[in-house]
Amino acid sequence: MVILRLFLRKVVTVCLALFISAHTGYAQHHHLPYAGGERRSIKALSPELVQDYLNGKGMGLSLAAELNHYPGPAHVLELASELNLHEGQKLKIQVIFDKMHRQAVDIGKAIVDQERKLDEQFKKRAIDSDSLRRIVRDSSLLHGELRIAHMQAHIEAAQVLTQEQIQQYDKLRGYYTGMEHPSQSHIR
Q1: CA-CA distance, 79 to 171, in Å (whole number)?
Q2: Region of residue 158 (phi > 0: left; psi between -120 and 50: alpha; otherwise: beta)
Q3: Is the N end or the C end of the chain the one with fewer CB atoms within 10 Å?
């Protein structure tokens, strides 16, 4: 009985120490979530996010398409051999990707410019309600256009692929659930 009590006391002590340690780290992290951000050139954007915008990256903006059986052209090109794309399909997908990428880079640059403008207005203490509304609205419209550019490319890519290729794509990307995919006949 004494051994059991000692064992339980040690277990409780260890659990309490772990809880306090975890809670302290959690509290410190949540009280300082923006620490270091004040040194960024654009406070609201990490350097990685700026590069993603400037490079036309997808950044998860097309998940509604991607996870509903509309493959992304960049990933289709990466998986071309596994999907058994013929040359005509590769060419069409490349054209779709190139168009989307050009649009995404242009829009991404405009988004970064808007965020820079917003940051500068706050830094100069020159922001007012009207300029705030204008800059944020413009930035929001640009974000919408960026999502449209990426998702439109997913729609167009799905029109080039067969249903079997789309199923294989989903499987290769880890989305395949074993359920039959909806008919793609409405997008052909």
Answers
A1: 11
A2: alpha
A3: N
CA 58 to CA 168: how far, in whole Å? 21
Cα 92 to Cα 114: distance, rounded to the nearest angstrom: 33
d(CA 15, CA 66): 42
Residue 185 has pLDDT above 50, yes or no: no
Q: Where are the alpha helices (DSSP H) in 32-128?
A: 47-54, 63-66, 73-78, 87-123
DSSP letter for each residue of 74-100:
HHHHHTTTTTT--HHHHHHHHHHHHHH
52 and 109 Cβ atoms separated by less than 8 Å: no
Residues 6+ apart with CB under 8 A from 67: 175
- Amino acid 28 reads Q
179 vs 103: CA distance, rounded Å:
34
With both helix axes pointing from N to C terminus, report the angle between 87-123 and 47-54 in degrees, rounded to the nearest 10. Answer: 130
Tokens of 56: 């036309």
Model confidence pLDDT, tens digit, residues 22-63: 555 554 556 788 888 888 889 899 999 999 999 999 999 999
Averaged pLDDT for residues 4-14? 53
